[in-house]
Amino acid sequence: MILAVAFFSAVAAPGPLGVSHTGRYFVDANGGPFYFLADTQWELFRRYSLSEAKLILENRKAQGIHGRHGHAHRRGGWNGHERCGQHPWLGDDPATPNPAYFTNVDAVVKLALTNEIQLLIGSTTRLMETE
Q1: How far apart are CA 99 and CA 86, in angstroms?
Q2: What's phi and psi for 73, nearest 5 deg?
Q3: Residue range 87-104: average pLDDT?
Q4: Range of the structural domain that residue 51 is part of
Q5: How many CB atoms lie within 10 A of CB 86?
């Protein structure tokens, strides 16, 4: 990864990003190829305060990383709470998002934009088998 950082500078891409007509690489809003140098922080939206998320994103930008992978929420196999004790869904129903939970997600997205970090945000549901 260190060599990749040395050869590819972290330049903010004009967004939004898309997929090329061949489906083999990312393109910026102008249709030019975009080298997506990213790492993961799956719990960025759930486990960290906004000040901690800000430090994480600023650190990654300084390291030349311009992308992050993370889950906006996870369902199943965990206690279901983010740092401030909110569940993503009201009544555990994905058809009813909890505004208090997603206010934090929105704030982290704004921090990423401020730091010119592109986000790939996933939504995960994992069903656990019981014995």
Answers
A1: 10
A2: -160, 165
A3: 85
A4: 38-124
A5: 18
